[in-house]
């Protein structure tokens, strides 16, 4: 029964309701504050040490380069606030309407990746760069005018739920879907570049390390593997019809 449900593309209202319930549950679990800030800070120090050891600790340089350009920090801050929700929602609506046969695998990948990410938030709390006392600036607060550390927003999310990055994970899901399914070349190219753009946004705003994004990609791949098990092949009614020019020629009398 579960496999049957995941294998179908349901009505827009049903899909919206299911995703709304999932996201509410996600926010509740993710919003549980870490009981040990010291542990979160120690985990962040471990991430920095790991990146330094393999030569990918580039976050300071990336943010510094963006901060030196006028207007760009504001653009990055607004992109961080909007793309994660608006971009993902728009892509899911497009997929549901234009490619319903592929919607179940993408939706189930997103759901499973989110569930895996929640496990990561609980087991490995970590502070984002902007809260780690490492000299990073909070671009969203200073340039976009939204204080992510305010008392109001602090009640809605857990600032130490940084690993893995679902900002990058969702962008990877959306990017792959657009790059492989869109009919227009410019949209396919935009899809291929979208995860990279999101990586620059989350690093440039001081909200994630490259390591966080890499773990976001890992949970997406794991989610896709689970989704392949849960989602059956598209039903015959949803398969693309054969092209007209492939129809057999009528027999001659």
Q: What share of the residues does DSSP label as strand, in percent? A: under 5%
Reading the helices and strands in chain order gives: HHHHHHHHHHH
How much is the radius of gyration in Å?
21 Å
Based on CA inertia axes, which overall geometry fits? globular
Query: Helical percent range?
Result: 55-70%
On the 0-100 scale, what is the average pLDDT? 83
Summary keywords:
single chain; about 250 residues; mainly alpha
Could you walk me through the main structural features you see in this protein, from its secondary elements to its overall organization?
It is a single chain. The protein is built from eleven helices and no strands. The chain has helices at residues 2-6, 12-30, 37-54, 59-67, 72-98, 103-123, 139-143, 151-154, 166-181, 185-204, 210-230. Helix 5 (72-98) crosses helix 10, helix 6 (103-123) runs antiparallel to helix 9 and helix 9 packs across helix 11. The longest helix has 27 residues, at 72-98. The termini are far apart.
How would the blueprint of this fold be written?
Layout: H1 2-6, H2 12-30, H3 37-54, H4 59-67, H5 72-98, H6 103-123, H7 139-143, H8 151-154, H9 166-181, H10 185-204, H11 210-230
